[in-house]
Amino acid sequence: MVIAPEHKLVKELLENEEVKKYVNEAKKKSEMERAELGKEKTGVFSGLYAINPVTKKEIPVWIADYVLVSYGTGAIMAVPSHDERDEAFASKYSLPINRDYVPDMKMMDLIVEKGVGEESVNYHLRDWIFSRQHYWGEPIPMVYCENDGWVAVPEEQLPVRLPEVEKYQPTDTGESPLASITEWVETECPKCGGSAKRETDTMPNWAGSDWYFLRYCDPKNEDALADMEKMRYWLPVDVYMGGDEHNTLHLLYSRFIYQFLWDLGVVPKEYPEPYIKRMSHGVILGADGNRMSKSVGNVIIPDKVADIYGTDVLRTYMMFMGPFDATMAWNERSLVGVKRFLEKFQRLVEESKDKYVVTSAEGMRTIHHLVKGVGEDIAEFKYNTAIAKIMEAVNDLTKNKMELAKTELLMMVKVLAPFAPFVAEELWSILGGEFSVHVSEWPKFEEKYLVSEIVTLSVQINGKLRGTVEVSPEASEEEVKKVAEEQEKVQKYLAEGKVIKVIYVKGKTINFVLTA
Predict the structure, then answer these.
(1) CA torsion 123→124→129→132, rounded to 10°?
(2) What is the CATH number of domain 2-114?
(3) Going by DSSP bridges, is the β-strand pair 509-514/455-461 parallel, antiparallel, or unpaired?
(4) Chain segment 482-516, per-residue pLDDT in tens
């Protein structure tokens, strides 16, 4: 058995120096640190033994900080063969590990049957501590009266508004800055009419940010949080976005408050969940690979970067840095590369704008593959690969001197618009696009242009790659075999033996099996 250092039994054991030392060390750790799965397990033997109520055998009682007094009873019956932490603890202190088990939850039935235990539910949800006190936090609508105790502010007096102040610095006493504003604090008890004082602690802004999105559905409604039909139209939220540092708790409480409102019937019954999808964005580090900090002096000022390179270069670079959820270091040299790419894109459009040409079949394939690929990447928040596809298309078009008609040029500009809006708008205007690229429809790709007129197949000799050939996707095995046999490099290897078998996988490879 393992008990938490804060368990009531431990208080009786503090005369034991080892126990006392261990308990004091445990106090220095947060619950989050203590609960980490990968943390090395530590503990101390209490000197006590407990009786297993089922087997009637003695079992040692240990004290360990991976057991939290805030969860359950603060004591666990360790099962090393079925729990990672228990196994790590037992292995470290050479405690016995019983590999026997009773299947199909029969042990639970046995415990209840013997009257030594019962089923219960333990919740991990803990109280939300409003410890950070800001003047601008949401006021708690409660007043304290000497006669009636705590009394809720009547609904007609809600919301409680913050007073106008000149100073809102924290106080030396730890109280909210509101505590020093006497004319706001002192009020009338809603129940008896006597003197009362407002609660001066505030909620830490998260309380409001947990459900503000509901107001977006109907921001000017003065009679309700939001009109039910408008909430039915807009909800649920498509994507919940936030940083990993606060996402877990914020998401937990936001969902908690939403479901409380759902229980009250304030939000549509059709949507018991507030969000469809949750995502966490990454963090941009300073050029030195560390977190940006004014004290360290590695903060990147966006305005200064935009002044040098332009806003579109800054935006495109930030989306091109890496995956959406990755943590990446700032790299000034990469900005130059993005700047060159946008200049190259601009030249491609400007040099083609006055040419009356018909886009070649190869050009059509490039553009329609681009539209399809970028559209799919944007939907999956793969902005870096979407931009890479645009770069690749520009390089292909330039290298192979493919000229585009105005229709295809406009499609390319639309694809660029989400990443470089100002450059795209200028090019849209140069091409004579209607009104603005940003209110135009996203381009549609056509399947017929996605099928390549040629495919590249690998040529293998006895399973080893010896070359490649380009053929029509519809080429027969005989046609592919003939083209492969005409390759000078392949002929050299074919001369080393007799072909006894040909393995052909359409559209992928042809393998000549030779005798030695």
Answers:
(1) -160
(2) 3.90.740.10
(3) parallel
(4) 999 998 889 999 988 899 999 999 888 999 999 86
**Minimal CA–CA distance to 3: which of 97, 69, 85, 83?**
69
Fold of 455-514: Ubiquitin-like (UB roll) (3.10.20)
Q: Are 419 and 387 in contact (CB under 8 A)?
A: yes
What does the alpha-carbon distance between residue 512 and residue 516 come to, in Å, rounded to a whole number?
A: 12
Percent above pLDDT 70 for the chain: 95
pLDDT digit string, tens, across residues 65-107? 999 887 778 898 888 888 888 888 999 999 988 876 666 667 7
- pLDDT(204) > 90: no
Q: Which of 19, 130, 114, 117 lies closest to 65 in space, CA to CA?
A: 19
Give which of 452, 447, 435, 368 is closest to 407, Cα–Cα.
368
Domain ranges of the chain: 2-114, 138-203, 206-281, 337-449, 455-514
Token pair for 438: 């940003």
Q: What does the alpha-carbon distance between residue 514 and residue 459 come to, in Å, rounded to a whole number?
A: 13
Which residue in 131, 141, 248, 139 sits closest to 190, CA to CA?
A: 141
Let me know: does 253 contact 204? Beta carbons within 8 Å.
no
